[in-house]
Each structure stands twice: as C-alpha cells, then as structure tokens.
Amino acid sequence: MTYNLRAVFLGFAMLLGSSSLLPSAKADEWNKKTVVTFNVAVEVPGKVLPEGKYVFKLADSQSDREIVQIFTEDESELITTTLAVRAYRLEPTSNTVITLEERPPGRPEAVKRWFYPADNYGFEFMYPK
C-alpha cells in the first residue's frame, strides 16, 4: 500500500513540476517576442534604430494588446514604447514579417508593420504626418 502511495505522490509531483514550465514555454506567443536584425538604420515612432539586433514584444497589458516595446538585443534597455493599431493579412507565414516604408531622401526607412509567425494579424506603427 505505501508503494502505491509513493508512486501516486511521485506522479503528482512530476505533473506539478512540469506544469510550472508551461507558462515560460508559451511566453513568446503571448508577448510576441521577436528578435529582429536590421542591416541599416531604421525609424520607429520617435526613434531611429542604428543597424543591429533588437527585441520587439508586446507590453504585458491585459487591457491593451497594441502597446509595442522595443529593447536592445539582451533586453537590458528599453529603447521605446509605442502604440500600434491592428493590421491584417490574408495569408499568414511561418516567419516574422517586417514591412518598411520609404521616407524622403536622407531619412532611414520606417518600420511600418510587424507580423508574428502564423498570425493573420499584426501591428501597424503610427507616425506623425
């Protein structure tokens, strides 16, 4: 009888331990964390990002899912936080898609839209006129 009780306890402990790993495995999908490399400088609302690697992700907000944060590659520094609006596409892709918008001569292209892999919706960055 004690052997069966130990087996049940061990099984329960393993189930409980493995379930604590699930939220971290799903974190990238919730916040859409994406590492992006730019080979040239690009503009985002309010900032120009020099060439390099950056992390785009949604702010941890239950009420507003259109707040985008841009961090340095190691996420040690928040570069900017900006509002976006939903953008839709008919066909999702298996890769991240970033679309750029042309700017006048002498200014870097601007990040216009960001789509997370396999999503039909993404985020469109808003710029002042």
Layout of SSEs?
Blueprint: H1 2-19, H2 22-31, E1 34-38, E2 42-44, E3 47-49, E4 52-58, E5 67-72, E6 78-88, E7 97-101, E8 110-115, E9 121-125
Antiparallel strand pairs: 1-4, 2-3, 4-5, 5-6, 6-9, 7-8, 8-9
Would you mind describing this structure in some detail?
This protein has 129 residues and is of the alpha+beta class. It has two domains: 1-27; 32-125, no CATH class. It contains two helices and nine strands, in the order H-H-E-E-E-E-E-E-E-E-E. It has helices at residues 2-19, 22-31; strands at 34-38, 42-44, 47-49, 52-58, 67-72, 78-88, 97-101, 110-115, 121-125. The chain has a seven-stranded antiparallel sheet with strand order 1-4-5-6-9-8-7. Strand 2 (42-44) and strand 3 (47-49) form a beta hairpin.
